[in-house]
Amino acid sequence: MTYDLPSMSYMAMYIISVHIVNSNSRSSVGADHWKLSVEEGKVVQADEEKSTGTYDTVDESLFRILTHKKLENGKWLVDHECTNCKEMQQKVSSTEPKEEIIEPKQNKSSTKKLLTCGKPVNHTQYDHLRGITNRSEHPHIPEPEVAIMFRKKGARNSEVDMNELELKLKKLKKQTPKSSYIYSQIGNYWRIRGNTQLSIECFRKALALSPNSPDILLYLARILFNLEYLDDAIFLTRRSLAMQTNEDNTWHQHFTLGEILKAYGHYSEASLHLQQALRLNPGFQRAEAHLRDMEGAPNPSMTQYTLFIILFLIMCVVFGVITSMEASYEDSTDGKPQRHFNRAMAMRSMKLGINPRLIRMRKLNGM
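Above: the chain sequence. Below: its structure as tokens.
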């Protein structure tokens, strides 16, 4: 009877499979049928009446759309092979409740056009400087003292209206769109605001039009000095000083060089530039304050030289002592052994009134 066992097992597997298929079919009573509820916005279990009867066309359409979607370029799209999918989608959208879209009121300040110098230039002859190369990584450092150059002459109020200044610069830019002076003034405007990237881009564009302008070079040097790019700042300031004519007053260049060299620790050269700035602009308080600070502070270079000299002298003294000790030791080992002083004989000679040197000489002659 063992040969009947395989057939019995096959029959059992067939019966179980048929039972599973019938229990999962849509036509079976009490089957678990799920649908997409448009009102609740989620998938819910269908009622038994609907599971045994006909299906809602909208629900059937939703399931067809869900099962015929594909991903293209990061977006879900309906498959073109799906028949009547567009019609289904229109039916579904018609059944969804329409929400009233309330558009927020646009703020006038948000739509205001930003004051910029336009598209950045591709290259300038100063782009090799590290501070300009890394301009996109700089932090924002406001420079409120720059506002003094926009102060009206003879005005009693020392404050500068930034909104009025912005409108004025926009008007000037519209009138002369390719002026290096206007670009530099916009750069100074952003120095006050503290946007380092926009100010550097404006100065780059100005330098592309006027690469030897002493004022623009000095403005850019001040920015890099505040960002602690001291080498770049010194290079641009010396370049600005060299581009000045004999008729121009160069006190600002000398003062900037004095500040940078002081930060570097070169007090002697910094003092010369600060004193020159005071001669060209007498009574300038910031230059006087820097000179007072340097008079009270020790010169780092002189301190280093003094320390080096002291160490050198100490090494020379130690070397001389060691050399003399070695020489005395060699003399004591190479020469004849010294005679010991005979104390008893010296005492006897003193009692007799004889000179100890004569006794010693006699002994040496007797030997």
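The two ends are 144 Å apart (CA to CA).
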